[in-house]
Amino acid sequence: MPAAIKGKFYYRYMVLDVFSRKIAGHEVQAAESAELVALLMRRTSLAEGLAGRPLVLHSDNGSAMKAATMLATLENQGVVASFSRRRVSNDNPYAEALFRTSKYRPDHPRKAFASVDAARAWTQQFVHWYNHEHKHNGLKFVTPVQRHSGVADAVLAQRDAVYAQAKATNPQRWSRSTRNWELKDEVWLNPERMPRAELERLTQPGHQAIGFVSWAHVQKKNQQRTVGGAGTVDSGIYAVTAKAAVGARLTTAQH
Asked: Taking the complete model, does pTM exceed 0.85, yes or no?
């Protein structure tokens, strides 16, 4: 986030639950620091009640995310650290989408922020809008909070009933079936192109290589793609929390 002083920037840290798209934690700081990221993760864990849940923090390869302070914090919380693939700038599309939404908001300041407090105030306003008001097109147009709190299914069921009634009342207006309002229960950061059953078969012991990729590497990729939530920030550090039955995938990013 650009500051009023040329060459100076503020750093925005966010924790995104990829399953629900809810921004579970966020801060704006005047510096990039592993200690600040670790503190944000501890606060988010307490706020979301993540203790004891099987979580994975997926991040880029920045120094803040690989620092001993951050890794120690994750280990103490039982969170597994995961890092993006080399030379893959868009390894977490949810983070990219979140920050694009932020930057293209009509009320996003065109000029630099006068102070870190001004940057924090705007970010606070954006997070509230994104979580509570934003009808997310990736969530069948329910808000992230509705998905996170578990009421999305009821909202979509009511929406489906309204569409069915409208079609029954005036069927000539409908050349096809009504819109599908069903939300999937699985969320993947980077879906595999091959069928899931085939991927699981290939990652079993005994398969030494798949093309130019070793079995160990494929297994690691498969383990990272656990069903659940993931986190995001901007181009630097992505942090994630999850609210899923099976597991969660965390990501970190910094802007």
From this structure: no
